[in-house]
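Task: complex structure prediction.
Instruction: return structure tokens for all chains below.
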Amino acid sequence: MSNNYEKQFKESMNRLHFSSDDKDKMYQKLTESIQASKEREEEYMKKWSLSKVAAVTAACLMITGVTAFAASKITMIDGNSRSDYDYNSIAEITSAQSNIKDKNDKVMPAFPETIGDSYSFDGGNITHENGKDDNGNIIETWDNLDGTYKNNAGNTIYLSMSYKSLYDDEKTPADTEVRTIDGIAVSYNYDEYLFLPDDEEEKEPEPDVKARLDSDDHFHVSYGSDKPETRYFSTVSFAKDGIYISLYTYDNVSADELFSIAEELILR
Amino acid sequence: MPYMDNENAERLVNTYADTILRISYMYLKETHDAEDICQNIFLKLLSKDIHFDSSSHEKAWIIRSSINACKDHLRTAFWKRATDLNEAPDIPVHDDPESELLDLVMTLPKNYRISIYLHYYEGYPVNEIASILGKSENTVSAYLSRGRKKLKSILESDSSEEISEMKGVMNNVQ
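Output:
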């Protein structure tokens, strides 16, 4: 790279930095976390668990993603939750539900002890969502609750409840299947994810991979894994009484079983 | 002195927050989650009471952790379903470093981008970049060489239309 281009590149990078306010806030959060951690260690002798973007509930998603700025409109949602459980029993997550208020006084249904034929509640989490506008300003915040259900075969299904929808119908691809249960549209989607190592990104995709990317809205390629890996992601979602409910799994759970669980939740 | 204290927290933020932001930008093409990535890395460092032989050793750990955090972010299936990284417009949370050269660098594959960033901005030689990325020196040399070659072919083009077209093609490559 010539000296002139190198200089341009460095100047560009120099312009990318946190503001003093951002750093102050970051420092503040760290010191609060340090204090909380010290208190927790003193009380429980428990290893502190870090917050991270949750694999099952965090979504960074463009709702409009278009041209003009919409300073007061939510165009992106991101959230975070703990990697271990916030709630270890139905009683605890039920208590959390009563603490999550909706401005329109909607009420979340209780998390069941069991779903389907064989899945039992294993634990739950709260996810703190931030709705942001095009400028990254937080417009609205809310909390989702997620229950993890497991069976003896080692399969896991996640049940998520929210007062807000994380999806914009205009932006999401057509559902794999939709069924109507008791007058409620229940959407099912089955998505295939091909994870490839970083080195693959600079190459042209294999013809069959490219053909699928061009034709299949439910096939996705992502780079960054240690080795090629395919995973499948099934979701069923619906809205009832203003509450958005989703069931999702990475395991081999049939569409019929997910629809059956959705029916249980709708009819109870 | 315990590592997990406010003084160390302040030092980490002032010393490395911008580095993590830039790596997030170079790797993810956006900065929305840079603050979360910073928090996670700093807390991990503070809570694990990791000690380093030198500040350069500490910085290399921070850079490696940032790249791994970015990889974890990309692997999040749910996130991937919601939006496609390569299609999502880059909405800046922080001031967008506008530069045609940077725009072109951002069209390169992420390994080239990160290697270029580590070499030309952070000043790391090839062998240290290889250690940070967990790649061979030959591989890193190839990333830099191919990256420079692609940039050179575009930058030396006389046609602004060709530059725009190339940027468009590179942005659509998945």
